[in-house]
Design goal:
Length: 273
């Protein structure tokens, strides 16, 4: 498949954000904030970097993607639909009884690699997959998106130590660093300080970027490919609720039900702009 240009990817990320809004039902809680902040990162993975094929989703050589902060899976659902893993109209069934699209990732959904949402576990899952690739002599990579608030979980750092020990250069973590949790700012709730420095001390190769600048995202993902003998982490500075005027940098929209007027306004901000 031809790699998309930066301009093409920016247009796709707009479609992904519109797809996120398609998953939302009036008056039903939905994780708008973190889904929007990670949309550009998800776009770059699915439409530029990862080896995957919606017609052959179980290809043993496919790259793996784990959404550790599983509540933001709406961005992944939108990307999977755009890639053809399932028809786009199914997005409207999200979080309804019997739908294959629920509030957190489940492996019964086409294209989903692991059940996540209990925060802190995704990097360990990705670690296991990366070790499996080494043992099976396969060259696929494993990408894991982490939330910044999620980094308070101790299991993240156990996985980070293990990945460094085993020199897993096929494991790439991406931190969606939007600096807000459900109940306020990271700095006030549980300040981890220098996140990049912490990963570096654990033996990871580190990159720090603007997580909404597609050019920077692509450069970081390409640079990771050159790393040998160590796992990599990309610290992506993002905006919670990116693109939605009333939700941007507003923790109230971490998991808030939206009114009809708010959904229409969000669509006007993104899809009709």
């Amino acid at each position: 498949m031809r790699r998309k240009t930066t301009k093409e990817l920016e247009e796709i990320s707009k479609k992904i954000r519109c797809g996120i809004l398609e998953t939302m039902e009036i008056g039903k809680k939905s994780h708008l904030g973190g889904s929007m902040s990670s949309a550009d990162l998800v776009t770059a993975l699915y439409f530029y970097k990862m080896k995957h094929n919606s017609k052959n989703p179980d290809d043993p050589d496919r790259d793996r993607f784990i959404f550790s902060k599983g509540h933001s899976v709406l961005a992944q659902y939108a990307a999977l639909a755009e890639c053809g893993y399932f028809p786009k109209p199914i997005l409207k069934t999200t979080k309804t009884l019997g739908s294959v699209l629920q509030g957190h990732p489940e492996t019964r959904t086409p294209g989903i690699e692991a059940n996540t949402g209990s925060l802190g576990q995704g990097l360990s899952i990705g670690l296991g997959m990366a070790i499996g690739a080494k043992l099976d002599h396969r060259d696929y990579k494993v990408y894991v998106i982490l939330g910044d608030g999620e980094l308070a979980e101790g299991q993240i750092w156990e996985a980070a130590t293990t990945a460094s020990f085993y020199k897993l250069d096929n494991l790439i973590a991406i931190v969606d660093y939007n600096k807000l949790q459900a109940v306020g700012s990271i700095k006030k709730r549980y300040d981890l300080g220098d996140i990049r420095g912490k990963f570096a001390i654990f033996g990871w190769k580190t990159f720090e970027i603007n997580g909404h600048d597609m050019k920077e995202i692509l450069q970081a993902l390409d640079s990771v490919d050159e790393i040998k003998g160590a796992p990599s982490v990309v610290i992506a500075h993002t905006i919670k609720g990116k693109g939605v005027s009333f939700a941007a940098n507003n923790p109230a929209f971490h998991n808030a039900p939206l009114t009809k007027e708010q959904i229409e306004r969000a669509k006007a901000d993104i899809c009709n702009s």
